[in-house]
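[STRUCTURE TOKENS]
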Amino acid sequence: MNKMSNELSRALNKLQKTQASNGGWPWFEGGPDDWYITEHIVAGMGHLDKLGVTSIRSDNKTWNMVTNAAKYCDDRMREEYEDIKKYDKDWKKNNHLSYTAIHYLYARSYFKDVKVANRNETAFKYFEEQAEKYWLSTGRYQQGMIALALHRQADTKTPKDILKSLKENALYSEEMGMYWKENYEGYYWYEAPIESHALLVEAFDEINNDQKSVDELKTWLLKSKQTQCWSNTKATCEAIYALLLRGTDWLATEPNVEITMGNIKLDPKNDASLKAEAGTGYFKKTWVGSEVKPEMGKVKVVKKDEGVSWGAVYWQYFEQLDKITPHATPLKINKQLFLQQNTKSGPVITPINDNTVLKPGDKVKVRIELRVDRDMQYVHMKDMRASCFEPTNVISSYKWQDGLGYYESTKDASTNFFFSYLNKGTYVFEYPLVVTHYGNFSNGITSIQCMYAPEFTSHSAGIRVKVQK
């Protein structure tokens, strides 16, 4: 607690030191004041105050910072309003609702007790009216901001209409929760999917007190963390803020899950040997082969409290590589080998099966077809190779193919592919091999796994190849 208090104090002192005399903050110390960065800090102060992390108004130093920053934002908004009047004759009729204006209304709504100066009132009301009139032409992120800003200004109709529209356009899934098709990463601050989703949690929580929707939105946030990462500190802060808002407090109760495997009951609450991890409730139970019975294949899970839980059951054993059958999760792999032969009409490839006989010197092409049903990050695919094959592309390098970037690394017995980001879709990878000596060989399997969510794993079937003199 002392360390956290000291860190908070240091951060506030740093903000005070870098704040310009006009109330704005630069992006980096020594740079010019930045309107968006200032709005972002004001909104962050509002989050801290709302969660009760720190009382902004009871600390004079912090309150003066926020007051000066709010007035700075008011002045920038007035300047934008004056430019609109200057360059557009029909400024009263046209849509001038910029992303920065929407963010301003949202950030400013946390501190209504900082009075808008008389010279800025007209501009403030103009953009409020713009928000009421043109919210449908904005994105989900901006609609959430508008709903919260107008709700805090005692508008009882528009925020309800916005949330109704958001619910009508949302997608629902038992596993993924509630989300929108437009949850994609863009180049600009207003195209950030995690921040956007976190803000909509706040909107449904504060305006409608819709606990069911809030819990479904939180589920999507946590599932996005399972197979990807919250890509920066800003996204992480916004996600944590959303998860700490009301809804159902998923951390308030001890994990209470009862698992039955056949006749064996696993209850971490009453079985000290399971050693459930504090807070998360994570535990692991392992059986050796002689202890595993067929009836244990019937697994029943009973969750006795509210919220979401995750778990996985997996069976680990040894088998001959060529007898392995395909296994699919949200990742699905199909691997094929082709014999490449030169003909009068050019190179022709034919599939290799159990009856195909290869000879030393033959050229073989490996084709791996990968299907992914959701966006994932940090994925490793390993393609095993029979000892009779030698790859022709032996230099490891970063490659780019059909909109997908990956690192390809060639090892003695396998070729490895590393994907920092794998978008939902279907991908085909090919690389050539040369047959070097004869015999009967297992070519192994191709396996793939999400590095930080190991339950997302898959492998292809095993292949056997025959090479004769």
Observations:
- The two ends are 74 Å apart (CA to CA).
